[in-house]
Design a protein that fits this description.
about 25% helix, about 375 residues, eight-stranded antiparallel sheet, three-stranded mixed sheet, 8 helices
Amino acid sequence: MKKIVYSGLLMTTALVVAMGAMAQSKYKKPATTTTKPAAKKPAASTAKKPTSKYAAAKNNINQVNPAADTTIVPAQAVTGTSRYRNSNNTALGTGTTTTTNPTAPVTFSFDTTVQGGFDAKPEVSLRNNYAMLRTQVRDRKPLEYEDLREDDAVFSHFIWREIDAREKINQSFMYPGKDDNGDQRFFSLLLSAIKNDSVTAFSADNDRFTTPLTTSQVMSMVGGALDTVDVVDPATGAVEKVITKKPKFSPDSVYTFRIKEQIIFDKESSRMFTRILGIAPIAKQVVAGKSLPRVLFWVYYPDIRASLTKFDVYNPKNIAARMTWEELFESRFFSSYIIKSTINNPGDKSLSAFIKDPLFRLLEGENIKTKIMNYEQDLWAY
């Protein structure tokens, strides 16, 4: 019995030793005492292909020259501007200009004309711009006003109106055409009269013409900061730096004009007179993300009448039957709405101050017109 147990233990021991030897031969290389010669590094062409895509990527990275990532060797001259280069239009490290003509001069020119139609220089036609020969005398003068005595004024009130050029009848105020006199927008005509005809503009702090403004102050309202623009001549490569002014707002945003006028009934002539006293352009400017109206300046209307006779109003029906701007205002060929009056207004407030609904403001303006008309009609007995 003991012999059987002893032989079983020997067989088990032999089996364990055999299994260990097999595991050592599978996962471990057998140790050798002989020294093998150093293997030569295979050439790039005979290198063994990697067996994994990760190994292939690693092999590609190792084969790239590290200096190629930090050294730029352009095949051609570097042009254009970049904030990462030391100077504009230069190759890195060379400091030489790579423009088309490096020896072309760089000139500076100043054009302080406010771009966008403000104070633009009129371009005079070198040929007759009309099919017919214009023989009409263009030097026209407005008719003198009738003399109104204070003692003959038995009824008088002040009216403030606003003209919206977006209305169809008032679209002539925004006509952007060009003529020998320049831009034909009414706001541009006001600026031209202030600059060329010595018409005095007054501050918008009040509408009583108390604080006069200089021409530079008026132009600073529409002109922004100076800006330099590079203009390259494609033929010669010459660079010209033009210093201009950018406008603070577009001329098309000035489409509202405020009018101050006085209505007088003269007992000597027994008629009602309406005399315009001042005109003020209103611009739409964005403040804190909101578009707000801003009165730019006031112009005394009797001072500007002579300047308005030089410009013709755009006539959509017939170009040959145009009138002057002075005739348009005197004949009252425009549409407007009342924003303020001295009738039953002891607080000297505008209609928007005590009437919030814009529709009811328009109705109140029509009510003011009716009161003035009824006063004149009630003077007569039929």
